[in-house]
Amino acid sequence: MAEPARRTFGPVVVLGLASAALAAYAASKPWVGAAGADASVESSVAVTTTFGDISSSPLGTALAFVVLACWGVLLVTRGRVRRAVSGLSLLAALGYVATVVWAPFGLPDHLVEQVRVRTGGVLDETSLTGWFWLAAAAGLLVLASTVLALRLVRTWPEMGSRYDSPADAREKATEQPTDNIDIWKALDEGRDPTA
Q1: DSSP string spanning 58-92?
Q2: Domain with CATH 1.20.140 in the chain
Q3: Rounded to two decimals, what is the model's pTM?
Q4: What's the pLDDT band for 2 if we cut at 50, 70, 90?
């Protein structure tokens, strides 16, 4: 059981990193495009460019970066901290998916209102852009990778203790080994376990 789970480490981590990066990039782009008949609203491209800050999802971008950071932490931690971080990444992924699900219901109306308030223009129609659909696909991949991480993180390989801080190494060096294997390890490390 442990060996197949260990083989999943690389693919799941690559999927998680790639999907979180894609989600962050897609969330920073306009999710809603619009066109208006009013002279102050020139074209769909102008609306999307001018009001990109309100037609995109800053919350989605932030949550995707949280997931991306969690993947970095998963690579360098062990034990309970690693499991807690994998749970945090799942919560951030759920938040990202909720942001994507909410967007078609809230962002178009918000864009129409902001264009009216800022320019006095009236938008005739709004539509979801390709960036939204890319963000939705990335959200599903982010969610799948974080669920897999939470499920498999206990069986994944961990970094060795040689990457721990020097203070931890000093504490270990002062401990007297009691088990036979620990005595041999101390001898291999060049320490005298009898001293």
Answers
A1: HHHHHHHHHHHHHHHHHHH--HHHHHHHHHHHHHH
A2: 2-159
A3: 0.72
A4: low
